[in-house]
User: Fold these one by one.
Assistant:
Number 1:
Amino acid sequence: MKMPNKETAVLGVDPQNDFCPGGALAVREGDQVIEPLNKVFEHARRQGWKLALSRDWHPEETVHFDKWPIHCVQGTTGAKFHPDLNTDGITVFSKGMEDIDDGYSPFEGIDDGERKLDDFLDGVKRIYVGGLATDYCVRAAVLDAIKREYEVYLLLDAVRAVDLEEQDGQKAIEEMERAGAIITDTKELLGN
């Protein structure tokens, strides 16, 4: 029997319906992150890694909606994870639940037991990150993880950007790399 490797984790950031095509705040090709995320989660399950997902879980009224269209409101279809995402055995961290915050970083979130992501990741040294969107919540997740001295791998084929301004996503990738993120993809991780 393989011993679990508790020093490694995978974090899927906000792969929710509202960020996918047809959603309230759709990211172009946002649904294209689901297949690579599923592959990485499956690999991680076999390796015994820790698995986490974050989600925007906004109240109906929040200052966040002054900047963005209404999206990922608690309990709505838009706030659910993409239907093709395999969430088996993955701990979910909800963020942006107050009416005064944006909740970009999963490190601001809590799970159903009100445990913070930091506590869940106790003992973890390296984190693989994918999800939505490159230039907002993924960026916040990666930069916060680096500040906490994790070794962070950005899975390039498992992220997509909002790109409000042209090249926002690319600029965010460069910023994460400068901060210390290792840029890779699922093929390199899975060895195929």
Number 2:
Amino acid sequence: MEVDVLASGSSGNSVLVRSGGTAVLVDVGVSALQIKNRLECFDCVPEDVDAIFLTHEHSDHIRGLEVFLRRHHQAPVWTTRGTWSQVPVKTRTGGEIESGRDYPVGSLRVRAVATSHDAAEPVAYVFEDGMHRIAVCTDTGIFTNLLVQRLAGCDLLLIETNHDADMLRHGPYPWQLKQRIASRLGHLGNHQTEEALDQIKCTQLKGVVGLHLSAENNSTRLAVESLRRAMNGCIPVTAVPRTEMLRVSVGSSAVFETVPVPPKGY
């Protein structure tokens, strides 16, 4: 199983999950051209994408969707009813999904899990291929008991490490925005992710990746330090800033490979 982080952060998010010839995109939060160029860095083309799953309707998760579908092909797009009610994109294939139900896509089985964010009906996703299980969980202000249950037993966790609490508190954002980020409908801070991992880490877990880092209120170093504390240094961890991409190969272990973002105009 391979997981490729194409984009991560408030400027755009997209993750590619592949197994057994099946390729699935989670979110299309950067331009269609960037998605195409970044896919090519991982030896993939847009026409290889079998389905797209949206976590929620915020622009940093759907920005490139309409043009991507129009320019390349009509891959099925799946998301919750609440998210569809806010997404101004119509597709010929795909449809609504419900949290807690399994959906087969080729060699993958996909399950949505409700998150806590200021969006219509946001979700995280768990992917299984019969051998491995991985989760993509960002944009949630709290880590609920449901998330703990659904993400337990994963081989790989891609999880939000949005901000450092002190950096957010003393940073440049207006107070109202700081309150939103730190609220139950905002984003997970490093300390919250560390606490969540204490609840869900298990013997199957082979690697943890921090996502959706704030460029103003966090650093890769602080996010990684927090993940390492949670894992006691026993398994590999990393965090992906907006200036990088990441390839993760999941087998008997998780192997990380940092990939540079292609230059604009590439």
Number 3:
Amino acid sequence: MYQFVMKGGVLMYPILLCSILTLAILFERLFALRRSRVIPEKFIIEVSDLVRQGRMEDAMTKCRLNDSSIARVLMAGISRHTKPHQQIKEAIEDVGRLEAANLERFLNVLGTIAGIAPLLGLLGTVTGMIKAFNVISHAGIGNPQMLAGGISEALITTAAGLVVAIPAFVFYKILRSRVDKRILRMERVSLEILDLIGQESE
């Protein structure tokens, strides 16, 4: 593996860094975007029942004790249940935007890696071919072994860039879809709780 990296030249190091970042972001986001950490269904049912019964203090306590995104969003609304409907809605939306941004964390980095890795590979191809042509200009084409270094560098960096970029792009799309589903679900739950608060205040 080390020899493979060395043959690819200096540009193999940023490509390797991209691969490490891709794996780190993937595992971190898969953990962070679990349903139990974002929108636990049991918690939603319990809070909905408490709000429906008018037990706002109990509902707020339940939200404080739950470390999920939806708990923080609902807490923003339930803690203002005595306020006008528009103020409650705005509070939920403000916290919802913060939680949505938190769910989307590192996704732009992953998308950037998917775009930049093949470019690094292409740059490696160019530098490798430059080396090969330099050899030709100085020694002619009579010594294939001298050409092999530049050509192998060109091919290795191209392959490495694509090997990193393709999974990064796939992971980005998968995580993006998961985030969108979580955000949509949070919006629906928030609207349901907002309606229940409105009914309670009437």
Number 4:
Amino acid sequence: MQRLLTAALLTSMSLMLAGCGNESRTDPPNVGLLALHADPTLETVFFRRVQANRTPLEYSETEVFDFDVDTYTFNFDVSAPDGTVAETISSVETLVEGSDYILVLRSAAGSPTVQLIELPRPDTLLATQAQLLHTADVVDTVDVYLEPAGFDVLAATRWGTIGNGDVLPPTGFDAGSYELAVTQPNDPMSVLFRSSSFSISSGETLFMFIADTNGGSLGDISLVRVTGSNEELVDVNVGSGIRVINAVQDRTAIDAGIDMQLAPPLIENIPFGTVSDLALITDGSHSITITPAGQPGVLEVDSDFDATLGAVGTFLVSGSPGALDAIFFDDDFRVIANEAKFRAFNASPLNTSVDVFVLPAGTAPASNNVTATVDEGEASNNQRIAPGDYNLTIRAAGSSTVLAGPTPITIDAQGYYAILLADPLSGSGVDVIFLYDFI
């Protein structure tokens, strides 16, 4: 972690240690501590020491602190969807003089736990080095290879063998471009993960962890570099994924092709008001083509888009025949413990902007409890929802005009829920079509 550790922790700590010979010192020496949120099953957590330093951390985010040498109770408060504290994960740790630390909130057998990792002391630092933590519940003991980019796993020397919760000790590397591969133990042909290339800079002290993607990207595991940008690297072999929602106004089925491959299309015969199955494509630049089902010669949409490695996105296809649009939205299907995600797609030209309310029974919709406001042709962000029974109500944005509902719905933990809003076949209001885990 060139910026966070070398500059903020190791350098500052070395200066503090240099003052230890001053007999007039009355304060205890300080140590550096990096708090790391590495549990993909949790959303925002708040790090604090007893009641102090309440600092929000999103998944894979870090924050640097200075502490006196002492014994502390460290807490990670897990936030509920309503902003309250759902639970607190605590750990009592002793920080000793001459060391810096990473305090990791991670998953262990499906439950959050805290792990303190001691970093190399300044007098033992290698010129350029890397260290690795295994936090992925989805895989057990693995072999790890960290070699120059383009290396052959079968001809390489493994960095080490590591189990869940284990840390490979700091190891010296030459500066350069590297890739990390994970395989089954003693079986280099069984590659579980291979990262894209990344740089290790001269003088860098790099800390990384292997993590579950937990549905947040394709593939089972990823590699997170705990650097200034906290970069997550996905498996280079997973490609990208797309889905298509059919919201065309004449309610006929459509086909979706990639790069003008229309016969057969990538996804065929998508009924109105449904979301297609996931289709895998290569990452990079593409075009999506939309035609009426079974009519490859009638080109309705030919639109360019970029597919990101490991990422999944959804095309909302809406409008009238002859004037269809295909709008791309990034997806986040990372599964969160004890809560769900909710999203709304608005494909109703009659309702250019709507307020969506997901409220407990007996709670009246009001300006201060709107779940999401969605313009026509757009989608809301994922909204965090606690499990339970609710009423779904749609109103014209900023008004009391009810377009649909209240409709009773049930939200289960770890689910992904979405609705599609379409023009009604007759009359006024809006049609609400339920997608994903509502079905």
